[in-house]
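LacI family DNA-binding transcriptional regulator (Kitasatospora nipponensis), 327 aa
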Amino acid sequence: MAALAGVGRGTVSRVINGSPRVSERARAAVERAVAELGYVPNRAARTLVTSRTDAIALVVPEAETRLFSEPYFGDIISGVSAELSDTDMQLLLVLVRNQRERDRLSAYLRAQRVDGVLMVSVHRDDPLPTALEELRIPSVLAGRRGDHEPLSYVAADNAGGARMAVRHLLRRGCERIATITGPLDMEVAQARLSGYRSALEQDGRPPREDLVGLADFTEAGGRAAMAELLERVPDLDAVFCASDVMAAGALQVLRAAGRRVPQDVALIGFDDSIVARHTDPPLTSVRQPIEEMGRTMARLLLDEIADPGRTRRQLVLATELVVRQSA
């Protein structure tokens, strides 16, 4: 091929591997030779030479029941897949549900079986992000572990979105506004709880701990937290839920207790997922651009793979309130 193109073998290799350090004239000559000879790169040989696998792992440290029941995960996967569709990258979905699977993934990563890692559902004490940092594997998180996250991440403005939701309830005249949180070992849940509290404080209302229901981003968790809140504060008149799925569970409990939504209790969720559009009544919700988060994560990771020494980037995407009949 090098002889046909009239260039050296090193130039051929750089063109085939996408290096920018090739003149346009040489690139065109190699591409003509590739077309004439019908050349197809040998991926196994390329991996040996370049240490690239053309594979990315999308790691979800949750049970498959959450993966398939919560629209958030599907939207992230959709965004990542769309961004990778015009590349040669293979996307591998990896569920990590227990210590054995965590150890197996660590061994897989140490063997350099993938070029980079995307990780969603980040819990504060999960050892995997630290392992990724130590292994120097290009990595991008959906969210962060805390204020001083060293890895690249893409997040929504969770605190700002929660403040918007609670301010909307205050403008409606709601007096006893409860919240149902996600698991508080996740920064995303802490941020939404912080936004809820700051909106109340800015309105001159000290937050009440009896109006905080702890849950886990699941429908069952939303039901259990709503039942506890009604028992503690029967006259509550609004609820901000940290996810649409939990809001759907809360709605079931409110209806069973004879509370009309929104006449007796206004209800707001977070995500603006398909769930919000199919509840009865349709759910007012904070929209976070989940699919765009997936796309952006994939773009950042591709950049890190192409240039491992580049500065890590941390992006926060805007949220907005979508008003429907529940509030």
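DSSP finds 14 helices and twelve strands in the chain. The longest strand covers residues 55-60. ok done for today
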